[in-house]
Amino acid sequence: MNLRVLEKVFNVYESELGRMSYAWSLKFIHKFALVMGWTTVVALFVARYSIVYLPFLFMVQAAMMVSGTIIYSFLADRVESRKIILFSAISSIVLLIGAAMFFDNDMIFFPLILIANGFFIQQISVFLSSYIEDFFSPVEASRIFPIIESAETVAGIIGGIVLAESLLGGGSREVFFLWGILMMALIVVMFLSHPRNAGFYNSLYEMKVLPKVKRIDWEGIKKSFTNISKIPFLQVMTCVFFIQWFVAQLIEFQFTKVVDEGVLNSGTLAAHAASLAHGLGTLQILFFGSALFVQLLLASRILRFLGTIGGLLFHGLLTLMSAISMMLGFGYFTTVMAKNNFEVSGVISDNAYEASYYAFPHGTQKTLREFFEGILAPGATLIATLFLLFAEFFFIEKDALIAINVVFLLLTVFTVFMTFFLQKSYTDLVKKNLKTVEKKISKLHAIDILEQRGHIHSTEALLSALRTEEDHDIIVRILRTLGRIGSAEAIPDIEMMLDSKNRYIRNAAAAVIGELQFLKDENKGIYVTRHKLIEKMKALYVKSSDVEFKMSLIRSLCALEENNVAGLIDLLQNSSDSLIKEECMDILGSYGDKSAIHYLKPFMKSDDYFVKAKAIGTILHISRNDQTAKVEMDRMFGNHDVKCRQAVFAEFWNARSGKIISLMRKSLSSDDEATKFYAALGLIKAGYSDAASVLADLLLFKNNLFFGRARKVLEDIGIGMKKIIGSEIEKVMMVRAGLYWRDNRNIADRLELLGESMLLRLKEAFKLIGLEEEIELINTMIEYRESSVADKSRKYNF
C-alpha cells in the first residue's frame, strides 16, 4: 500500500513508521503470549481445583504483582529499562519451561507459573510501556499510541483463535513451551529490531540534555500517596480507577464461572481444561474483536465528542447497565454481554486514562503511571479476590451470587457518581497548570486539554492566560485553540492581538478570525462585530508593511466578506506587491468560477515571472484546456532565465512530470541557492523525498531565503513530507556539528556538543516548515538547560 495512503488512514508518518512498528511488535508478542498463557492457566486451575477456589489464584497473582513492583523499585533507577526487561524475560523463560516440564505436578507447576507471570511478566508490561513512551514526544504519542495499543487487541483475537481451535491441544503443556518461545521472540525483536532513529527524546535522555524520569521506587510510592492527598483530581481519579479494576475482577470471576458451568460434564480433568480453554478462547475472539472495531474506528471520535472525563463516564454508565441486567437476570447471556460491554467501553476508558496523565506536571507522569499500574491495579485485584473469597465461604452459592452482584451494582453507581465530580477537579487542575506552572510544556498541555469538551469556563481561563502571557509560542497556541473552540467572547482579545508587535502573534490572530465559523453565519447578532473586525483589518492592511501579515488579512477578509469579489479584484489589479497579487489569484482560483479567467489573463504578460506563473497555474486550475495558458506555460519552460526557472519549479512542479523532474534534479546542484530551494521543494511536492536533504541544509543555514514567497510555499507541503524534512534537518545539524548520524554507539555522547545556538537554529528550521512537535521538544530542551544553570547558580551562590 502506498505510504501516503497509510499516512491518511492511520495518521502516522513515514519518519515514525519504524518506531511505531517496533513498539507495535513488542506489544503484540507480549500480549499474545499473556492472553494465550494466562487463559490456559485459569482453565487448568478451575478444572483441577473447581471455580470456588479461583479467587485464590487471582489473589496470589495480585500479591506477586505488588511484591514485584516493590522489589523492582530498587532496580528501576539503577538499571535501564531494556536490561530490566531482558532480565525479566530470561527469568520467565526458565520458569515457564520448568512449569511445562512439571505440567502434571500441581505443587511445582502452579508456583512456577505464578512467579513467572505475576512477578516477572507483569513487570515487563509496566516497563515496556515506559520504554516505548521514550520513543515519542507527547504530541506524537496522542496520535500513535491508539494504533500501538491496537496490537494488544489483535493479539487477544489471535490468542483466542489459538485456544478456540485447540491449535496447541487446548490446556496442554505445549502452550507453556510456546509462551517461553514467545518471550524469547520478545528479546530478539527488542534488541535486533531497535529503530535506528529512536526519536529525539530517547537520545536526549541518554545524553542527559533531558533528565531521566525517575521510575517508581519506595520513595516514589510514598510521594505518590503524598500527591494524591494534595491534588483533588488525583484523589477522585485514584478512587474511580481503583473501583474499575475491582469491578473488572468481579466480572472476570462471574464470566469464568458461567463458562465453566457450560463445560462441567466434559469427562476427564484434561478434557474439562481443554473445553474450558476452548470456551474462554472463543469468547475472547468476540471481546477483542468488538474492542478492535471500536478502537480503530470509533474510540477517537467518541473521545473527541465526549472529552476525557466523558469517556470515563461512558464506560461507567455502560458498566452500570450491565450490572443492572445481571441483577435482574443473571445467566450466561447477561454475563457474557457484561464482559463484552466492559471490554469495549474499556477501550474508550483506556484512551481517556492515557489522556488524563497530561494534566500532571511534566516529568511526574511515568511515576504516577507505574504507581497506578504496579501498585493500585494489583491492590484492587487483591481486595476484590478477598471479597470473592468472603462471599464464597460465608454465603451459600445463591446468596453469594446475589452478594457479588449487589456489590457490583453499588460500586458502579458510586463510580458514575464520582466521575461527575472528576470533571470539575480535572478542569481546576488544568487551569492551575496554565496559570501557575512555570514549565512551558506543561502550559502547552494545559491549553490542549482545555480545548476538549466538558470543561466549564475554559474560554475564560484561556483568555486570562492570553492577557498575561509573554511567551509568543504559548500565545499562538492559545489563539489557535480559541479559534477551534469558536467562542464569541474571545473576539475582543483576538482583535487586540492584531496589534501585537510580534509577527507570529498578529499572523495567528488574523488567521484565527478567518476561521471563526460563527462570524460567517447569517446571524444578525454578530453583524456589527463582523463589520468592526472588517474595518479594523482593512485599516491594518493599509498601515502594515509586513507582507505575510497582509496576506493573512486578505484571507480572513475574503472569508468574512464572501460577496466582496470587487474588492479582491481591485486589490489584484492595483497592488504593487507581487506576493499580494499571487494571494489574490489563489483566492480567485479557489472559487472555481471561469469568469475569473477574464481578470487573470492580463497577468500572463507580467514581467514578474512568479506572478506570470501563478496566473497561468490558476487559469489551468479553473480550466484545464485553456490553450492560451498552455502556450504561455510552454514559453516559460523554454526560458532559461534564473528567475523564470525558479517560478516554473514553484508553480509547475506537477506538470509534464518527466521533463520537469529532470530539470529540478539538475538544479539541485545549482550555485544559485534560490534555484536550488525551488527545485528541492518542487521535487518534495512531487513525492521525491531524497531532495529533503538539500532543503534541510538550506533551512538550517540559509535563513535569508525564507521570507515572503519562500515561506509561503513551504506551507503547502504535506505533514508527512514535513516529517521527512524534519528528520533530514536533524541529520544535517549533526553532521555539521561533527557527528555521525549512523554511528549509534557514539551519537548520544556527541549530541551533547549541540549548544544553545544550534538548538535555536534547529527550532527556527522546524518553525519554518511548521513542525509543532519538534518545536515543543526544542523548547523543552532549552527550558531544561536554563533551569539547570539556574539551579547550579543558586547552589554555588553565583
Question: Which descriptor suits the 3D outline?
Answer: elongated
How many helical stretches? 36
The radius of gyration computed from the alpha-carbon positions, rounded to a whole number of angstroms, is 31 Å
Unreliable segments (pLDDT under 50, ≥5 consecutive)?
197-214, 742-752, 792-798
Amount of helix: over 70%
Number of strands: 0
Q: Major β-sheet, in short?
A: none
What does this structure look like?
With 798 residues, the chain is mostly helical. Helix content is 78%, strand content 0%. The protein contains 36 helices and no strands. The protein starts with a helix and ends with a helix.
How would you summarize what this structure contains?
With 798 residues, the chain is mainly α. The chain contains 36 helices and no strands.
Describe the secondary structure blueprint for this structure.
Elements: H1 3-10, H2 14-49, H3 54-76, H4 81-101, H5 106-133, H6 138-164, H7 174-192, H8 200-206, H9 218-230, H10 232-261, H11 269-306, H12 308-328, H13 332-356, H14 365-394, H15 397-436, H16 440-450, H17 458-468, H18 472-485, H19 491-497, H20 503-515, H21 527-543, H22 547-560, H23 565-574, H24 578-591, H25 597-600, H26 609-622, H27 627-638, H28 642-651, H29 657-667, H30 673-685, H31 692-701, H32 709-714, H33 719-736, H34 744-751, H35 756-769, H36 772-795
Helix pairs in contact: 2-5, 2-6, 2-7, 2-11, 3-5, 3-14, 4-5, 4-7, 5-14, 6-11, 9-10, 10-13, 10-14, 10-15, 11-12, 11-13, 12-13, 12-15, 14-15, 15-16, 15-17, 16-18, 17-18, 18-20, 19-20, 20-22, 21-22, 22-24, 23-24, 24-26, 26-27, 26-28, 28-30, 29-30, 30-31, 31-33, 31-35, 33-35, 35-36
